[in-house]
From TrEMBL:
Its main location: cytoplasm. Residues 7-173 form the Cobalamin adenosyltransferase-like domain. The keyword Transferase applies. This is Corrinoid adenosyltransferase. The keyword Transmembrane does not apply. It comes from Shimia thalassica. One of its GO terms (cellular component) is cytoplasm.
Length: 190
């Protein structure tokens, strides 16, 4: 259980922060950028939930919880030492990815195939879900970049990749099952 009695600690006043294993790194460290962006993504999901109802709200709630799991995973480097750890770190697992895939398939089955690229927008929920999609892509890019130099759980990258797809399909659902999608018209303003 997490207990936060005091919010400010002054330990980051010189530009460093602690990872989940206690190591101190610069606040602009690649690992901090990756999990910080997953936190930003979580905040954008919270904004989208203001417009969501029922099943989609429940799915977004599960995604928010997953994103905290993902941040916890990213903040604990050295995956090879997990078994030795006194407090085993929380790691993303395959079932979190496959749940997203099942939800994508169920939503996509109700949509007509796309015949054009679509522009972010339409309903308020759709616009917010498109913002979530773009932040998810950035979190994915930063996690992939981090994985080129440090250990990153492959499930983190798979989850973020599926999640951006989830947001895309959900944004179409939020636009009256795609009927209110805003279509791109190539060269429309030439």
């Amino acid at each position: 259980m997490v207990v936060l009695n005091k919010i400010y600690t002054r330990t980051g006043d010189k530009g460093t922060t602690a990872l989940g294993n206690g190591d101190r790194v610069a606040k602009f460290d690649a690992r901090v950028n990756a999990y910080g962006t997953s936190d930003e993504l979580n905040a954008t999901v919270g904004m989208a939930r203001l417009y969501a109802a029922d099943e989609m709200d429940a799915q977004l709630s599960a995604i928010q919880n997953d994103l905290f799991d993902l941040g916890a995973d990213l903040c604990r480097p050295e995956m090879d030492k997990d078994a030795e750890s006194e407090y085993p770190p929380l790691r993303m697992v395959e079932s979190q990815v496959t749940r997203l895939e099942a939800e994508i398939d169920a939503m996509n089955a109700t949509l007509e195939p796309l015949r054009s690229f679509i522009l972010p927008g339409g309903s308020s929920l759709s616009a917010h879900l498109h913002l979530c999609r773009t932040v998810a892509r950035r979190a994915e890019r930063l996690s992939v970049e981090l994985s080129r130099s440090e250990d990153v759980n492959p499930q983190v990258i798979m989850y973020l990749n599926r999640l951006s797809d989830w947001f895309f399909v959900a944004a179409r659902i939020a636009n009256d099952a795609g009927k209110a999608d805003v279509l791109w018209v190539p060269g429309a303003n030439r």
